[in-house]
């Protein structure tokens, strides 16, 4: 962990409930990493819950970049209420990583003194929450809310944005199926999913794909070829194959450019692998069957949130403010079954939640 000197006020917070000093309480909120539907519901909920406590709340723009730049806007019911059903984030986002240097971490930690913040709600995936966890580990009043369409944050059943993204994938596959059937071809649909196959698996199953490849289970080029060939020999003259961008396929040549490109958290940019296009070319070359590829890309992040994501964002936002009010800093609001429960940020740091093994059995059954 990169660590800087803690803020001067940290001693005041360590063993106290936020607001217990009898002073005006000021809460900050940010959204970091990739955007997704449902973030605005969470921002709205944090604002409502904070104002209900008699606190003021400030939105920090563009994730941790806004923390470092002290770029912010006061939040009110009036400037957050109309965004409940709007995708993206009204605060903006970035993949800025304050943990890269001692200086940037110290700058992030000093935002509490510089802006007079008594608490901070960080809404993001594993990267954003890793920064939140580092700050909380230094005694700062930080709590987290999990969001990522990949649904790979440990400790929670669902992340904000995942439900909407799965609906988008399933709907896209349904549209692609009609044109694929009409032309008696095969179509390879590439979804997001760096290390976890939640999107490909659930979106593919709901969309009726006949072959799904996920990062948790290696496959081979020959398996795809044999699958498509077998369908045509059986008189089923079309095929919909779904592949996660991070899937490992033995025998398939993919692009190398992405291996050299990384973001501030050190992640390889997988889009340049072109796994979907490479697989489509391989299938057509081996079978002679016309095969197209469709990369859903950022379509999976866009559009209005489903009702589930609106409600989830609302519940998690209210819970996060409640943790600050109760002095439960260093916690992430998580959905576990029907309940929202606190999970220590330290328990999820540096970890990824893979696709549950039970889904692998389903994938093989419907191939």
Explain what the structure shows.
The chain has 367 residues and is an alpha/beta fold. 39% of the residues lie in helices and 17% in strands. The chain contains 14 helices and 13 strands. The protein has helices spanning 10-13, 39-52, 64-69, 77-80, 102-109, 111-115, 126-137, 162-182, 198-207, 221-233, 257-260, 275-287, 307-325, 357-365; strands at residues 26-31, 56-60, 72-74, 119-124, 142-146, 186-191, 211-213, 219-220, 239-244, 249-250, 291-295, 331-336, 339-344. The strands form 4 sheets. A 5-stranded mixed beta sheet has the order 3-2-1-4-5, with helices on both faces. Strand 12 and strand 13 form a beta hairpin. Helix 2 packs parallel to helix 13, helix 8 packs across helix 9 and helix 10 (221-233) crosses helix 12 (275-287). It is elongated and about 75 Å long.
